[in-house]
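Hi everyone,

Forwarding the result from last night's run.
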Amino acid sequence: MSLLKQALKVVSLRVLIWALGSVLVLALTLFSIYRYKRAVTPPPSSLARAQPGPALALPTLPPEQTPPPVVYQSRGRRDPFLQPRVAAPQKGPEVNLKVTGIVQGPRSYYALVESESPTGTGFVIRENDVVESARVLKITKDSVIFQVETTSREGKPLTRRVQKHIGL
């Protein structure tokens, strides 16, 4: 029972120290805010006594000494005052196929691929076959290189190559 009492004393002491620290931080914050407001706001009596005086005149140059207006000359550089045209990162062409195996035939390699969209649809492909809008360029002993036709944001046709390794 004495162990439980000691644990409660330690916990209550920690809670008390935490509470006192929080109160101290709060008091210091409120004091600094009060002091800042008091330093910034002038007393009302000085506002009542203030009389409007003549406005300060800024010195001006005679017309013959007035400098010409500044005009930005880009000289082939981008204009720093215009919003930069940042191209959105283009998502690479996707080939939704998983290479599950490669077999070497008498004249070339054959690849066993599986479609990821309807899972489980399998194909046996060789070079120059077209599978899901991707043409097979080359089959090596551990990967397949596909060629995908896409369009850029401007509408220009792009040809991208995607390499898929076995199991990826």
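The two ends are 62 Å apart (CA to CA).

Cheers,
N.
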